[in-house]
């Protein structure tokens, strides 16, 4: 039995049904609980609107004025009333009858920045606003350069976007989609850098939020009401001098009132106690790292450790006591960020796509995270692993003709440094050019044959309670669920790779991730069964994917909001009363 979206949430509001979810990452997670919506794929040639039920592109938005690359965005709904008081705002807002027919938007950062102004040197980029009812571009808002991360602060009708170049948050109020409000929040002391924001619906935090920057050893506190930074905690004396040069990913445990922050440049995860309107350093988890998330019920904090192929689960032990490591598991293939899907009343399925290098001979042997720089054998060379000069590890090892090095290579066994058995091609005269031979010219990102496959790459889904209880079958690998091309290096390391990202979004029971292999597509996984549903090919390389819940006009055939959605099954109290009303 299906209801319109507005009628169902009016029913929920009238029944005083309240969702207690407090975990916030981007600010549109609550809409993922509503089934029947569409995924919006932002790609190099525009936007594709994908129906996950039919696995079809049902609409497109294109134009020469759209960027070729996109950064973070969120879906938001504007409500023309005071929304600042409720700390469990998302259910109330979803239940609210819309004052305006068109108040549903996606706000997303362009992945392109301007050239520096010839006079001021200022660099800018844009926030693009899409009306999801008309499926059209509504406006463009200029902000700081390289705005990557963004957040929908829905209980304030505000969109916060962070500029890596000037270190400021630019704020758009949904009542005016033509410009940012003119106030910015600065969160750096000397050096602007990449960073993130943590805010929560929890009444324990109130107006408090926290921000990170990757270049300074500071945790910033921000007042969301006054839009000012009000406190900074310098943790330099709490960690060894040569670790944790800054902070990146950040999460809040509502049970313990602790902040978790990922060290940039290595160093693990720092845990802070932020109870009682204070910031206190608590502990450094030196052996854990990764992207950080509180589970929707607040029971755990989860870290997906892409660099070390692991997932860590932290359990709160009470305020002021460091979290315990409740579970750890190896997930080969560089697991990306996590989406949570409810299973029963007290469990979640955590799904994450893999970011493994899809080049067939290099997969699981050569990438930025696992290394591609220590060739020791012909087998390594055939797997695309590079051999670097021990005197300059950013340059491939080269042999000069008639040098002592060539003589040593020709007469040696080839099993010792610096050549091992990875420079055998330089034993052949024809491989010298202008008196020089490169030991591994066809390695890493310089490899000419980039034939790729996702046959062993896709997504993981982990049953959290099953993992903690060490149950068999707690981990499901879904091979063939797409892969992304590995990013090229940053210019400093010859033939090197760079950090690679694979974004995804949950909508109802589905999780959609971007993919380039086997083709440019959105790959949809059914989280309820932990199986792949389909690849949906799109007309360009995707950068981001977002979820837009159904509007009031969508019907059963297009995937209307159903009482079978996980939102109704697991996120509400008085489920029995609702069931009796329906059935």
Characterize the biggest β-sheet. 4 strands, antiparallel
Structural class: mainly beta
As a percent range, the share of helical residues equals under 10%
Strand order of the largest sheet: 3-2-1-36
Q: Give the terminus-to-terminus CA distance.
A: 9 Å
Strand content: 35-45%
Overall form = globular
Number of strands: 36
What is the rounded Rg?
25 Å
Number of helices: 7
Segments where pLDDT lies below 50 for 5+ residues? Answer: 7-21, 85-99, 555-583
Can you put this structure into words, describing what you see?
This protein has about 575 residues and is mostly beta strands. Helices cover about 10% and strands about 35% of the residues. It is built from seven helices and 36 strands. It has a four-stranded antiparallel sheet with strand order 3-2-1-36, with no helix packed on it. It has a four-stranded antiparallel sheet with strand order 4-5-6-7, with no helix packed on it. The protein is globular and about 80 Å long.
What's a quick, concise take on this entry?
This protein is mainly β and 583 residues long.
Topology of this protein?
Elements: H1 5-14, E1 38-43, E2 46-51, E3 56-61, E4 70-77, H2 89-95, E5 104-113, E6 124-131, E7 136-144, E8 147-153, E9 158-163, E10 168-173, E11 184-186, E12 197-198, E13 208-211, E14 218-223, E15 228-234, E16 246-253, E17 258-264, E18 269-273, E19 280-285, E20 291-294, E21 301-305, E22 310-315, E23 324-330, E24 339-342, E25 348-353, H3 378-382, E26 388-389, E27 392-396, E28 398-400, H4 404-411, E29 436-438, E30 458-463, H5 464-468, E31 475-479, E32 504-507, E33 510-515, E34 521-526, E35 531-537, E36 542-548, H6 566-570, H7 575-582
Antiparallel strand pairs: 1-2, 1-36, 2-3, 4-5, 5-6, 6-7, 8-9, 9-10, 10-11, 12-13, 13-14, 14-15, 16-17, 17-18, 18-19, 20-21, 21-22, 22-23, 24-25, 25-30, 26-27, 28-29, 30-31, 32-33, 33-34, 34-35
Helix pairs in contact: 1-2
């Amino acid at each position: 039995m299906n209801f319109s979206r507005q009628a169902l949430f009016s029913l929920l509001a009238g029944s005083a049904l309240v969702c207690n979810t407090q975990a916030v990452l981007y600010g549109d997670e609550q809409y993922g609980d509503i089934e029947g919506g569409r995924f919006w794929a932002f790609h190099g040639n525009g936007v594709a609107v994908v129906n996950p039920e039919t696995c079809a592109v049902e609409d497109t938005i294109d134009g020469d004025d759209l960027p070729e690359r996109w950064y973070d965005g969120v879906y938001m709904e504007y409500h023309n009333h005071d929304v600042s008081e409720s700390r469990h705002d998302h259910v109330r807002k979803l239940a609210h009858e819309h004052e305006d027919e068109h108040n549903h938007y996606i706000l997303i950062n362009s992945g392109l920045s301007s050239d520096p102004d010839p006079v001021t040197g200022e660099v800018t980029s844009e926030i693009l606003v899409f009306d999801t009812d008309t499926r059209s571009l509504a406006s463009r808002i200029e902000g700081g350069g390289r705005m990557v991360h963004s957040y929908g602060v829905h209980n304030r009708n505000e969109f916060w976007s962070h500029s890596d170049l000037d270190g400021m948050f630019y704020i758009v109020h949904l009542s005016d989609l033509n410009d940012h409000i003119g106030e910015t929040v600065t969160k750096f002391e000397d050096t602007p850098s990449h960073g993130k924001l943590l805010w929560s619906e929890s009444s324990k935090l109130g107006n408090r939020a926290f921000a990170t920057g990757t270049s300074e050893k500071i945790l910033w506190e921000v007042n969301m009401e006054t839009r000012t930074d009000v406190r900074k905690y310098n943790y330099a004396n709490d960690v060894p001098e040569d670790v944790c040069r800054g902070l990146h990913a950040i999460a809040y445990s509502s049970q313990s009132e602790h902040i978790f922050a990922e060290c940039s440049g290595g160093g693990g995860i720092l845990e802070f106690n932020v109870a009682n309107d204070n910031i206190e350093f608590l502990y450094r988890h030196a052996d854990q790292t990764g992207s950080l998330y509180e589970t929707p019920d607040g029971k755990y904090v989860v870290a997906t450790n892409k660099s070390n192929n692991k997932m860590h689960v932290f359990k709160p032990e009470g305020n002021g006591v460091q979290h315990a490591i409740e579970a750890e598991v190896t997930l080969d293939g560089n697991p990306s960020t996590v989406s949570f899907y409810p299973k029963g009343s007290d469990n979640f399925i955590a799904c994450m796509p893999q970011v493994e290098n899809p080049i067939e001979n290099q997969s699981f042997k050569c990438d930025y995270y696992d290394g591609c720089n220590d060739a020791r054998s012909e087998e390594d060379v055939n797997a695309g692993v590079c051999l670097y000069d021990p005197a300059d590890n950013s340059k491939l090892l080269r042999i000069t003709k008639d040098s002592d090095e060539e003589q040593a290579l020709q007469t040696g066994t080839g099993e010792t440094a610096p050549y091992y058995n990875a420079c055998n091609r330089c034993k052949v005269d024809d491989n010298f050019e202008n008196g020089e031979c490169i030991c591994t010219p066809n390695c890493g990102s310089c490899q000419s044959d980039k034939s790729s496959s996702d046959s062993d790459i896709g997504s993981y889904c982990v049953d959290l309670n099953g993992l903690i209880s060490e149950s068999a079958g707690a981990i499901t690998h879904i091979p063939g669920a797409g892969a992304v091309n590995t990013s090229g290096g940053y210019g400093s390391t010859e033939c090197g790779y760079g950090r690679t990202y694979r974004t995804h979004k949950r909508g109802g029971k589905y999780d959609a991730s971007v993919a380039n292999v086997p083709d440019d597509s959105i790959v949809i996984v059914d989280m309820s069964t932990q199986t792949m549903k389909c690849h949906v090919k799109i007309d360009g390389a995707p950068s981001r994917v977002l979820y837009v819940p159904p509007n009031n006009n969508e019907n059963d055939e297009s995937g209307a909001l159903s009482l079978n959605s996980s939102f109704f099954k697991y996120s509400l109290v008085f489920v029995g009363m609702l069931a009796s009303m329906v059935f």
